[in-house]
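Quiz preparation item.
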């Protein structure tokens, strides 16, 4: 399989290039960027050819889209072709309608569309999903998410500070929300009727401190989701999933333990895993999608509900609007 990367910014330089160089089964043949100098830097680093995106799209069997989120929908549309594998960086797309459109189009044409959310492979997230699936905490009714700290990521395009979908909600929040939805086994369910209340944010999007409560319908019933994401203050980096018989909690960063609480008490449970750090999880995600071509865990259709919740949170009126 020949691989091309569209977008040669910070995430490509710091994550994709390192993963490719560390795995001989991953070979990038083409890279492209609106800034030719950025493309040249990455091309030299990974031994690829820098070229226009039109050439890359025609030549590559698999395409990684690592551009700012506002461009994702259009680029996915350009990349779709029978048998093509497309890995779109998070956040996926910016509206639920766009998510439904591109996933349906990919299925219809016979392309594999995946989304890069490697935290799904974190040991504690996988363990929490197993616990929920076993029914240990009962039917899930509530999610509580918190992640915040000093923001040090510098995007070459500057979109994290300038674009509506570059703020903490879409950037950090999409990661944390996905961990919760995946661990709660809600990512494969349709979500509808999303409403948002108690919105607090430092300013209009892109906001850098955001808190709210979202409520939505899933197959299992009505789910309440409380969120607080921040680039301006340190927060407890935690995900808590509450059911009618207990709860499971884990940290939002890389870890290998969960805290299970039920009517009989509380215990910390270690996860059995082959991964020792987030880089290994990131590389494994690429391997599953681009080498094994078994991207079910990251299939685009499993992120439509996440986008619906993020869109509703982003559009909600509150402080800073």
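Solution:
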């Amino acid at each position: 399989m020949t691989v091309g990367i569209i977008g040669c910014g910070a995430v490509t330089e710091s994550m994709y290039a390192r993963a490719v160089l560390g795995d001989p089964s991953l070979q990038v043949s083409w890279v492209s960027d609106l800034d030719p100098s950025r493309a040249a830097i990455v091309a030299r680093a990974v031994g690829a050819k820098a070229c226009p995106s039109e050439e890359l799209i025609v030549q590559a069997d698999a395409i990684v889209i690592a551009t700012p989120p506002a461009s994702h929908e259009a680029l996915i549309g350009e990349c779709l072709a029978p048998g093509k594998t497309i890995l779109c960086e998070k956040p996926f797309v910016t509206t639920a309608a766009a998510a439904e459109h591109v996933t349906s189009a990919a299925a219809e044409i016979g392309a594999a569309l995946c989304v890069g959310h490697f935290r799904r492979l974190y040991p504690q997230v996988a363990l929490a999903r197993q616990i929920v699936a076993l029914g240990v905490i009962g039917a899930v009714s509530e999610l509580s998410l918190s992640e915040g700290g000093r923001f040090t990521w510098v995007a070459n395009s500057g979109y994290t500070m300038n674009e509506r979908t570059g703020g903490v909600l879409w950037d950090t929040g999409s990661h944390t929300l996905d961990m919760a939805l995946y661990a709660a086994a809600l990512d494969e369910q349709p979500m509808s009727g999303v409403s948002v209340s108690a919105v607090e944010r430092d300013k209009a999007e892109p906001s850098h401190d955001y808190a709210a409560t979202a409520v939505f319908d899933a197959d299992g019933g009505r789910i309440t989701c409380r969120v607080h994401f921040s680039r301006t203050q340190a927060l407890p980096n935690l995900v808590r999933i509450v059911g009618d018989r207990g709860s499971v909690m884990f940290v939002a960063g890389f870890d290998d333990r969960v805290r299970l609480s039920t009517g009989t008490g509380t215990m910390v449970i270690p996860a059995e895993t082959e991964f020792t750090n987030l880089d290994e999880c990131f590389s494994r995600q690429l391997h599953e999608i681009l080498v094994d071509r078994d991207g079910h865990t990251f299939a685009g259709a499993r992120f439509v509900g996440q986008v619906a919740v993020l869109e509703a949170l982003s559009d909600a009126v509150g402080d800073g609007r």
